[in-house]
Write a structure and sequence with these properties.
binds erythose-4-phosphate; TIM Barrel; eight-stranded parallel barrel; alpha/beta; about 375 residues; binds phosphoenolpyruvate; two-stranded antiparallel sheet
Amino acid sequence: MFADLTELTMNAPEYLSERLAESQASLAENAPVRVNMTLPTPGELRQCLPVSTQVAERLPAQRRAIHDIVRGRDDRMLVVVGPCSIHDPLAALEYARRLAELSPRISDRLLPVMRVYVEKPRTTVGWKGLAYDPDLDGSGDMARGLHLSRHLMHEVATLGLPVATEVLQPMLAAYLDDLLAWVAIGARTTESQLHRELASGLEAAVGFKNATSGDVGVAVDAIHAAAHPHRHFGLDERGRPALCETMGNSHAHVVLRGGHRGPNHDSVSVRAARAALEGAGLPARLMVDCSHANACKDHRRQAEVLRDVVAQRAAGETSLMGLMLESHLEEGRQELVPGALRHGVSVTDPCLGWQATEALLLEAAERLR
Ligand SMILES: O=C[C@H](O)[C@H](O)COP(=O)(O)O
Ligand SMILES: C=C(OP(=O)(O)O)C(=O)O
């Protein structure tokens, strides 16, 4: 397994992309957008990296378990935990092995799902994630990025862990969604109609973050929109433009991540979010992201936030059904300097280290028993 991924990390799957002939590319030389490479279609990538029988059989049960928590039929809490972003697939697999080992020790009270985030939304500009730039140097080998992303998700799923990701580019869902047990729509895209349509057609439960401003209303609107059937523009398996019809997703929920005005994990904010959902006739089900503006981007504060949420839940706030933690092998973050990276340290937001994460999840499970 590891040998396979190591090899993949080094060898670009050239057969999956095709540089357009110079004559074709140069037609667009002076255009603001230059198309110089075709990418594999979703069908081609899926064929190249098929889902094993074991993973395919396990995924529906994982999704059902998450649905049950989202709906309140299972009183455990969902915990979406893992690196802010994946930049080193081998380090991510090492993390996944540790989480898979911890999982049975807490699974009576918590259901861990691993963050395998291969796309990053940026406030302005910055590295956009493994799917866009797996070599971390701006070369943007997206064919390899897609291949690595799918391969890694499959490896994580093979360990028995449910896989979570944020879908930023709606087109990418078709490459990955047969591996996803939980999906995030981020704070910067919750208001986007395209993302709401996408969520409406996913089998996985979808968490909509409140806006970066702190506005929870847009996430409530998003849940409403995602629950509806839609007809929207999309791509089929062969990459052709297609009219897509969706059924509506009844497992969308709000994720409180704080905002420009400060955190929103406290009991007053939780009650306000609950009231907003109830007022819109929607189930009052909430996940709290312990990171981002809830931790004021200080990874150590995630522990305080988690303890506060668990205490509220233990005191009877049953609308709180989930937690999110940004966590990697080692704590903190580092600047993205290719060739000088420390192993297992985030290159985007600061993360809790593994030891602190493990201790915190064991403590939370105990508190919820
Ligand atoms: O989760 C990661 C970041 O908070 C998000 O991608 C924005 O990052 P940036 O503000 O560093 O661009
Ligand atoms: C980008 C993320 O969060 P948000 O959309 O809340 O900023 C994230 O969870 O990685």
